[in-house]
Amino acid sequence: MKNFVEELRWRGMLAQMMPGTEELLQKEMVTAYLGTDPTADSLHIGHLCGIMMLRHLQRCGHKPIILVGGATGMIGDPSGKSQERNLLNEETLRHNQECIKAQVAKFLDFESKEPNAAEMVNNYDWMKDFTFLDFAREVGKHITVNYMMAKDSVQQRLNGTARDGLSFTEFTYQLLQGYDFLYLYQHKHCKLQLGGNDQWGNITTGTELIRRTLGFENEAFALTCPLITKADGKKFGKTESGNIWLDPKRTTPYKFYQFWLNVSDEDAEKYIKIFTSLDKETIDALVEEHKKDPGMRVLQKRLAQEVTVLVHSQEALDAAIEASNILFGKSTKEGLEKLDEQTFLDIFDGVPQEHIARTDLEAGIPIVDFMAVNTQIFPSKGEARKMTQANGVSVNKEKVTLDKMMTPDDLIDGKYILMQKGKKNYYLVVVE
Prior knowledge:
alpha/beta, five-stranded mixed beta sheet, single chain, elongated, 14% strand, 21 helices
């Protein structure tokens, strides 16, 4: 078996682990789990490091379990949070679980006939009939309040600036997560919990609960990955418009591809190890090639390709590359018409917009009037005429002449016209 810990180590995906973890993984096939929060019907790229840990675990011959926190998702984890979470109902949680499984299935093999086939579980299934009295007696008595209070996640909330402090509900979160580990240890022979480094306190509560409940000869282990940040220290995966989601309806494959394509050189070298399955030799060679000519952005291009195919598909990658070429390459009107509306808007996000009435367009507008009277693409008809005569004006990526009439036939998606003057100046005309 490949050494899972060594695989994480060279990839920069190992933060800390309990003594004996590496030896256990070298000795036998280990079942390990990682929890994810089902508060949305899609994962975002902030979840990817954990999912990649499970992917490497399975490829190293071990068995991954992904736990959807249906029960804990109804409460909310205080780790790294300043406010209590909204509580979700069961119907929403089940829907979110199914959506998440479909996304994770691209990374893990759930269908394998081998003993290390991936599994998905939901802690709501074993928590929903657990009464408060039973929980207090079977779980609460084993862990002291002193032990729980000492955890960083609790201390930060108690001593932080959160106006509401820490609710009892959230305080019990580490016991609930600890019980998940105990349950999986007993029912799935699961000896290892994986997670982000902010989960260390919750995970070690689980290992402690296993020992105190079942006897100290029962060993369980913890391993965490570092929290991923950008080179400038800012939170990874967040953009001005919010999260980068794995669901193409929330974040188009084009925008997803562009996110990875535009990371810094320093981040690209770090991310290609964390978010792809490329081996060390391939990555080392790419790093060397990139350093010879950083302007070619070899690392960013390969990173964007690998992650887009992994999360979406080869077809989605091809479409994203084709869409990327629209701004910089020799695309056609046919290429524009193939785009879905959201991708079209993503490509031209930030491009100056002009608005005209549909009734004006239906009557037909001479190209010069369209650019200098109906819109402000040119400050004067003289300038519009001069550049059109010089072959410098395009409508939907096609060069036009002075006899061009603008009509509804020029609409993309029934309401947009892409105007271009010169090589780089785009204008999006929205017809309302």
